[in-house]
Here is the input.
Amino acid sequence: MKTILLILLSAVSLFSSNGYTADKTPLSSHGIDYPQGWQTWSSIAVSHRTDNNTVRAILGNDVAIKAARSGEHSPWPDGAILAKVVWKAGELAHWPKAIGPKDFVHAEFMFKDSVKYADTYGWGWARWVGAEQTPFEGGMQVCVSCHTPVKDNDWVFTEPGWFPTN
Here is the structure.
C-alpha cells in the first residue's frame, strides 16, 4: 500500500508540473465552471478501484485540506472542493511489482455549498473527461446515485490519509 501511495503522489506531482496546456478553459460541467489551478492542490488521499482498474489522487483546495488535516470533515465545510484525478492503472515499466497511473481518464470535482447545492445534498458535482477535458453533462443525479452508499459520510467516499505534522 505504501508503494501505491508513493507512486500516486509522484504521479500527482508530475501531472501538476505538466498541467493542462490547452489554450482555453474547458466549458462548464453541470453549470459549474472549470476550477482553475486544481493541478497544484495538495493531496488528501489516494485510492485504487479494483472494479474498473483505476488509480486516483484525491486533492483538495485550501478549505478541504484544512478540514482533512484537522479531522473536521464530517461534514465537510462549505467552500471545500475535492478533486479526483483518475488514471487507468497499469504495471510500471521499471517496477513490475507496482502499479501506477497510465492513461488519463478524467478529473472530477465535488463543490461543498450547502445553500447553493441544497437540492443535491450540499454538493455540486462536475467532471471533465479525457486529455481534452470535455465536460460531462450526464446530470448531477448520476453522481448522487453513485454516492448514495456514502450519504451518511457526507456523500464522500474518500477517507483522508494521515499526514505527519512534523
